[in-house]
Each structure stands twice: as C-alpha cells, then as structure tokens.
Automatic annotation (TrEMBL):
This is 7TM GPCR serpentine receptor class x (Srx) domain-containing protein. The keyword Translocase does not apply. Keywords: Membrane, Transmembrane, Transmembrane helix. InterPro entries: 7TM_GPCR_serpentine_rcpt_Srt (IPR019425).
C-alpha cells in the first residue's frame, strides 16, 4: 500500500475521532443547563461546533486522498471552502477563549469592561462575522483552499487575498492568544506567591486544558508559517501535517477530559442530569482568588 493511501486512511480515522469527540463535547455543554449559562463553556460549545464543521471536511478530504480521486469536482471545491471557513473561525474562537481566561482569572481595573455582558455578546458575534466574511470570499474566489490529493495536505491554489488573510489570522490570533495565556499564568503565579490565596480550581482546569490544546495549534502554525516556507521539506511532511491537523480537535478533547474530572464524568455519562455543585468559602478577593470553588467546571 502506498504511503499516501495510508495517510488518507489515517486522516479519515483522526477526523472521525475528532468529530465524535467535539460532537459529544458540544452536546454535553448545550444539554447541561448550568454549563451553557457560563461564558467560557459558551465559547467552548461554539468551538466544538466549528470543529465538527471542520472535521466533516477533513474526513471527506481523507477519503479523497485514500482513493486518490476528487470524487466530484463540486464536492472537492465545497470541502475546501468548509475547511477554510471553519479554520479561520476557530482561530478567532480560540483567541476569544484565551481572552475569557484572562478576564476571569485576572483583575486588572483598566480592562474591567471585559467582564461586562455586552462585551461578551460582541465577543461571540465577532467569530460569526468572520465566518460569514470568509464564506463570501470563498464564493467570490471559487475554491482557494483545497486538499492536495497527491500529497495528503491542505493548501492554497492561485493568487487571491485568501492566503494573506489566513496568514494574518493565524499569526495575529496566535500571537494574541499566546500573550493572553502568558499574562494570565504570570498573574496567577505572582498572586499565589504574594497572597497565598486559594485558586478556583474549576476555572484553573479550563485554563490548563485550553492552554495545552492551544500549544498544539501554535506549534502547527509555527511549522506551517515560520519554518516550512524557508526550508526544503520532503513531500511526506505535507501528509503528516494533514494528519496532525485532523487530530487537533481530538487532542483538545483529550486534554479537556484528562484535566477536567467533572466534565469527564458528564462526557461518559449516559444521563443528562447536572453534576452537583459544592461551594467552599474563602475570603473575598478579586476574581480567581474569590469565593467559590465549583465542581461544575
């Protein structure tokens, strides 16, 4: 069996695992009355939904690679557009999640407006605006982003504004998210050292799982945008990147379930009942070092 065919089957497997993981996460959040009221989980549900969207495209792309055929010209174009629009939206959403972690776990008075409900509404609207804009771009320019069947990876074809737009969002959103996560961790370490206060473990678990998952995405973006364009790489690396890209949502799910015990119990539960909440009282201090430690995270 040729290497590229194996790549196709691995992309099918990884895409299917990622799709099922994201779909289950989406259901757990949407059907959990307490979770869907929380801003962090609202963003995570949106991410899971878009990951399902993206994985439906990578699954079909993997089938095309395994068969070494476009199957259908229209389907080939649509699959690329779905993958591109979902990827752009996910870049924004993961940056929004990093901003949410920064807002919840720090207490800088100059950015207190980030805690307002209206700001969260605007924050949730921004990825949707990006999604619709990318869909319009794909309609105008046909199918700028496609699966390179002979190599098993995704890339742009032709000359259009979609490539620089992707570079801008990949590099810009990743840099912004990295800065937010770094600032949040430094703040927590500094406050723990100075005040010795208790940390809200539920919020901290979400921070850890999202930061670790983000590091996976950041490494892929660095490879694609900062390393591969400047060195000569063998063709097989394109297929490997395609496999890793298909597994990204699956890795995110693994991190969430590994670190967040209470969400894990909901994920594998056959019941949709809400997990009970235990409150532990501490002295009143800003944000993360505040009153309640909740098992709902």
């Amino acid at each position: 069996m040729e290497f590229i065919v194996v790549v196709g089957y691995l992309e099918i497997f990884c895409s299917l695992v990622s799709f099922l993981s994201s779909f289950r996460i989406f259901l757990v959040i949407v059907l959990g009355s307490d979770l869907r009221k929380m801003r962090s989980y609202q963003i995570m549900a949106y991410i899971a939904f878009m990951e399902c969207w993206q994985m439906s495209a990578t699954l079909l792309g993997g089938i095309m690679v395994s068969q070494q055929s476009k199957l259908n010209d229209t389907l080939y174009a649509v699959v690329g557009n779905i993958a591109f629009s979902a990827w752009m939206t996910l870049l924004v959403l993961r940056c929004c999640l990093a901003l949410n972690r920064f807002t919840v776990l720090t207490s800088f008075s100059r950015v207190s407006f980030l805690e307002h409900r209206r700001f969260h509404s605007v924050l949730m609207l921004f990825p949707t605006t990006v999604l619709l804009s990318i869909i319009i771009l794909c309609i105008i320019y046909g199918h700028p982003f496609v699966m390179i069947i002979e190599l098993g990876g995704w890339n742009f074809i032709g000359i259009d504004p979609c490539r620089p737009i992707e570079s801008f969002f990949s590099n810009g959103m990743t840099s912004c998210a990295f800065g937010l996560y770094l600032t949040t961790f430094i703040y927590i370490i500094k406050m723990k050292h100075q005040t010795h206060m208790h940390v809200d473990l539920g919020e901290f678990r979400i921070l850890i799982s999202s930061a670790v998952a983000f590091s996976y995405e950041m490494c892929m973006i660095i490879l694609f945008h900062c390393i591969f364009p400047f060195i000569e790489v063998p063709p097989w690396t394109v297929g490997v990147i395609g496999i890793l890209w298909s597994f990204l949502p699956g890795f995110n799910g693994i991190m969430l379930l590994t670190i967040n015990r209470n969400f894990r119990s909901r994920f594998f539960s056959l019941k949709w009942s809400t997990v009970s909440t235990t409150h532990v009282l501490f002295n009143r201090v800003p944000n993360i070092f505040s009153a309640t430690s909740s098992l709902q995270h």
